Amino acid sequence: MGQVHVLDHPLIQHKLTLMRRKDCGTKDFRQLLEEIAMLMAYEVTRSLPLEDVEIETPVAKCTAKVISGKKLAVAPILRAGLGMVDGIVNLVPTVKVGHIGLYRDPETHMPVEYYFKMPPDIEERDIIVVDPMLATGGSAIAAIDFIKKRGCKSITLMCLVGCPEGVQAIQEAHPDVDLYIAAIDSHLNENKYIVPGLGDAGDRIFGTK
């Protein structure tokens, strides 16, 4: 079963609280999400393999550590996932970026695909799928399905806020995928919004509410 990592670092929790406030404006919301994404990516990449290389400092030659040729990609689920990309790119500038276009049907609440574009060597990469909200889990499950069909085997899901229903759905549909999340809230309401949550992340990122 994929592991669930709740990242309770004080900086992450503090910034998330600022984002939750209904009077948090678009500019601040966007900046805070980018900052949290970078802090979360620090933990997601903690297990990257290292290898020894010989270098020369201004003082002496020595053996030092570098990341061992691991290929990474980040795949935001459009559109809200875009708000998490820059934070990861700031931390890992060489990361490739794919895009997965999904929207939730307002009647069925099921995900509908409208766009999919990934690096050509996706099957060789560790993919970090990002979406701020893990509500029903439907969009994340569908996105991971699409990526697996392209041959990718190493996938991590990174979300900001989720609920028990979404976490369970991901674990049941993709037991090989680890989940990194900043908070698991109480429940989903009748409109499939996370409670207490932070509202519609896409609207708050892009100022379309």
What does this structure look like?
Helix 1 packs antiparallel against helix 2 (26-44) and helix 2 (26-44) crosses helix 3. The N and C termini lie far apart (37 Å). By secondary structure, the chain is of the alpha/beta class. The protein has helices at residues 10-20, 26-44, 85-91, 138-149, 164-173, 201-206, and strands at residues 4-6, 50-56, 61-67, 72-78, 96-97, 99-104, 111-117, 126-134, 154-162, 178-184, 187-188, 194-195. The chain contains six helices and twelve strands. The mean pLDDT is 93. Strands 1, 4, 5, 6, 7, 8, 9 and 10 form an eight-stranded mixed sheet that branches. A hairpin with a 4-residue loop joins strand 2 and strand 3 (61-67).
Secondary structural class:
alpha/beta
Sketch the major β-sheet: 8 strands, mixed
Oligomeric state of the chains? single chain
Strand content: 25-35%
- Unreliable residue stretches: none
At a glance:
With 209 residues, this protein is of the alpha/beta class. The protein contains 6 helices and 12 strands.
Can you give keywords for this protein?
single chain; 6 helices; globular; alpha/beta; two-stranded antiparallel sheet; 209 residues
Describe the secondary-structure layout.
Layout: E1 4-6, H1 10-20, H2 26-44, E2 50-56, E3 61-67, E4 72-78, H3 85-91, E5 96-97, E6 99-104, E7 111-117, E8 126-134, H4 138-149, E9 154-162, H5 164-173, E10 178-184, E11 187-188, E12 194-195, H6 201-206
Parallel strand pairs: 1-10, 4-5, 4-6, 4-8, 8-9, 9-10
Antiparallel strand pairs: 2-3, 6-7, 11-12
